[in-house]
Amino acid sequence: MKMPAPDQGTIARRSEIVEALRRIVPGEGVIVDEDELQAYECDGLTAYKQLPLVVVLPETTEQVSRVMRWCHENNVKIVPRGAGTSLSGGSFPLADAVTIGLGKFNKILDVDFDNRTVVAQPGVTNLAITSAVAHEGFYYAPDPSSQIACSIGGNVAENAGGVHCLKYGLTTNNLLGLEMVLPDGEVVRLGGKHLDSGGYDLMGIVTGSEGMLGVITELTVRILKSPETAKAVLMGFPSNEQAGDCVADIIGNGIIPAGLEMMDKPAIRAAEDFVHANYPLDVEALLICELDGPAAEVEHLIERVEQIAKDNGATELRISRDDAERATFWAGRKAAFPAVGRISPDYLCMDGTIPRKALPEVLRRMREMSDKYGLRVANVFHAGDGNLHPLILFDANQPDELEKAEAFGADILTMCVEVGGVLTGEHGVGIEKRDLMPVMFGEDDIKQQQRIKCAFDPDHLVNPGKVYPTLHRCAELGKLHVTGGRLPFPDIPRF
């Protein structure tokens, strides 16, 4: 993985940049010491590290606006950063860019139970929103495994999902409004507490834009009433293929669980050793299926899921007896990523998404790739919507193992596209999948995406070097291409 060469002219102006930032954010809001900058040298994609030019920690939207305006006027790049939990390198720092950390934007500004909304600053953690409304029987549905640490602003940047996104949607389906600072410092508001907005769906463009269009400073999200009943079914299978078939049959029978997750044997053992969730260790694959709603409906659906599991050869079937046991079932799944970190010095977490029917084939091919590269892989994923999270285990201290892990990951993601899937489900492209974009998109597709980037950020100053393997100048993308002496669509009036 290579990043664009740092601009030496910007680096030479570091003192000037630091002085300007300190005028905008006084006190301890500007970090320049090398030891302190190391806390920002990477995000959740820890395989790659680089010190930022400088870090600024604004506390108000006005300060963010002034920082963005100054950088825009002085041609200085910006990298927005939330909690730094991105697994695709979305907040990877640049040696010639100002990292804007939003950790001080950590307040919930409004809780409105009548309208079922919460207004929060971007640095508020995902779990904190549920914690703020749980006493009235409400919760925030999208729940990434990192919800105790990841920020709601970062969730919007990556369009994060989680266990419950199968039934209740991703971040984009639960976001109602936002405040955002554009690259030139202008502050705009999109949406609000109302259900929908007229005109272009600009929030849909911003959600999942990976911090490339501006900096979000406030969000309005939807909260839901907690279901009357929720139960989890733990299902063990003698093979990954049988578990994959069971997932397809559950959805194929018209059952939409609140969550439907899968772990393979390496992930099961790691999670059990870490959390002691009483998982069966004699199975090759484990499914956790949560069903929620009215009690009668839940009981009926559990009977149907049990029968589907038995028809697919399940050797272990357990139904949670109470909320405490249900939470225990989920504890291992939620802690699977740190659990795998205990059995390997390093790992890369992939994030491809595939059609559910392709699960058995994809799992089989991943085993073959594991043998090919001589690297172990542990699978933890949102099986219900086909969002895979293969964890490739390696040791960066061993020669060539990082390169092998990268090649293994590229093969997995390429396979996801081959079987009808996509490169990412919720982690984003960042730098991790940037060079694989042509596997999924043609040149014209990528150029069209870049035109949206140009509409917001014509100078390419915000989070550059991410998502697009080849950056086209906005002036080039705005031109009409003449072929054979003829303009495209010559019958369309030109203005």
Automatic annotation (TrEMBL):
The keyword Ligase does not apply. Residues 48-226 form the FAD-binding PCMH-type domain. PROSITE patterns: FAD_PCMH. Gene3D superfamilies: 3.30.465.10, 3.30.70.2740, Vanillyl-alcohol Oxidase, Chain A, domain 4 (1.10.45.10). Keywords: FAD, Flavoprotein, Oxidoreductase. InterPro entries: FAD-bd_oxidored_4_C, FAD-bd_PCMH, FAD-bd_PCMH-like_sf, FAD-bd_PCMH_sub2, FAD-linked_Oxase-like_C, FAD-linked_OxidoTrans_Type4, Oxid_FAD_bind_N, Vanillyl_alc_oxidase_C-sub2. Its cofactor is FAD. GO terms for molecular function: FAD binding; oxidoreductase activity. This is Glycolate dehydrogenase, subunit GlcD. It comes from Caenispirillum salinarum AK4. The lineage of its organism: Bacteria, Pseudomonadati, Pseudomonadota, Alphaproteobacteria, Rhodospirillales.
